[in-house]
Specification:
Elements (H helix, E strand, L loop, with lengths): L3 H12 L3 E12 L2 E12 L3 E6 L5 H8 L7 E6 L2 E2 L3 H4 L2 E4 L11 H11 L4 H14 L15 H13 L5 E5 L7 H16 L3 E5 L3 H7 L2 E6 L2 E7 H5 L1 E9 L12 E5 L6 E5 L10 H14 L4 E8 L2 H9 L15
Parallel strand pairs: 3-8, 3-9, 6-7, 7-8
Antiparallel strand pairs: 1-2, 1-4, 4-5, 9-10, 11-13, 11-14, 12-13
């Protein structure tokens, strides 16, 4: 008989590289309210997947269905090839809810020992694994402190430790870095990236767009019970047709190149160079217009000191896709539904 720790790892490894989370035409109705209106998505093994959307978009309902806490009205969902809600599927899952409550009379090690026992881990395994996680999450040295003395960020990190204790194959996290200081956030990111490299599939529901952009391999944005945009972060964010430039001295006002526009940027000493700004019918590619501008700047005696293509932000994409009255966008590489 294998221990719980070994069993979890074997289960994840034996599944291969197919869809760990598969959702097909999922609907959930609460009377006249359609919380989910035909959601379909697939999350691969060893992928960190971010789920975004305003309150009421359907994110929590989707996660609860995947955890087997809510039954769908229509459609199907599977974890590791098994129906969600089945005992076999639930054994593979680690979960950190947003508003979790931990028994405050416990210490961190005693709490993990209790949870590990409930998960079927042997005493030596749960003690070793618990100490390992507490150290990784910056809670080492506080073994004698009861949870009632923990800060919010410490409780959040302990909650993540309990979700990871049995080495799950699939990890669902709701606002995992809420209330955590910058050092703790970095520790959590590093731990989650290590889990991803081990083959764990991580499903994150968060409003911290910077964290999502930094951590997630792919994201999906929901609105009114539907996925309106999905893709990798680089696909969704893309790059703008503008560059930040700086020279050894301010450019003269007479430096004008057709198809470009130069204006001061927010950063001191730098300018924003936009292409197609003054000549929307320009046929030459953006790079050629950039080359023409740099050649004109060199001819004017300017020495280039900085050149950087601007990129969009996940915040811009999210605001455009998640607003209730906005049309469903189809971003570069994204999927409009």
């Amino acid at each position: 008989m294998v221990t719980g720790q070994h069993a979890r790892g074997t289960e994840a490894d034996s599944f291969g590289n197919g869809g760990v989370v598969t959702v097909d035409g999922l609907e959930k109705h609460y009377g006249p309210v359609r919380a989910l209106a035909g959601v379909s998505l697939t999350v691969a093994r060893g992928e960190i997947f971010g789920l975004l959307g305003q309150n009421g978009a359907g994110k929590t309902t989707l996660v609860k269905i995947l955890l087997g806490m809510v039954l769908p009205t229509a459609g199907s969902a599977r974890l590791l090839g098994r129906p969600v809600g089945s005992v076999a599927a639930r054994r593979t899952v680690g979960y950190l809810p947003e508003d979790h409550r931990l028994p405050e009379y416990h210490t961190g090690p005693s709490l993990l020992d209790v949870y590990g026992g409930l998960q079927g881990l042997s005493a030596p395994v749960r003690r070793h694994r618990g100490a390992e996680l507490l150290a990784s999450l910056g809670l080492g040295g506080r073994e004698r402190l009861r949870i009632r003395g923990y800060s919010k960020g410490m409780k959040q990190r302990l909650g993540l430790a309990q979700a990871l204790l049995h080495r799950p194959a699939v990890l669902f996290l709701d606002e995992p870095t809420d209330g955590v200081d910058p050092v703790g956030r970095r520790q959590i990111r590093e731990l989650l990236l290590a889990e991803r490299d081990r083959g764990v599939t991580i499903f994150i529901n968060s409003h911290l767009l910077g964290e999502v952009e930094q951590l997630c391999d792919r994201v999906a944005i929901m609105r009114k019970g539907q996925v309106v945009l999905s893709g990798t972060v680089p696909e969704l964010v893309g790059r703008k047709q503008s560059w930040l430039v700086a020279f050894d001295r301010p450019p003269p006002e007479g430096l004008v190149v057709p198809g470009t526009r130069l204006e001061p940027a927010d950063q001191p000493g730098r300018f924003r160079l936009s292409v197609h700004g003054d000549s929307p019918r320009a046929e030459s590619p953006a790079e050629k217009q950039l080359d023409a501008f740099l050649a004109a700047a060199a001819a004017a005696g300017l020495a280039l000191r900085h050149l950087e293509q601007e990129r969009g932000s996940l915040e811009d994409v999210y605001l455009g896709a998640a607003q209730a009255d906005a049309p469903a966008p189809a971003g570069p590489g994204g999927l409009a539904r």
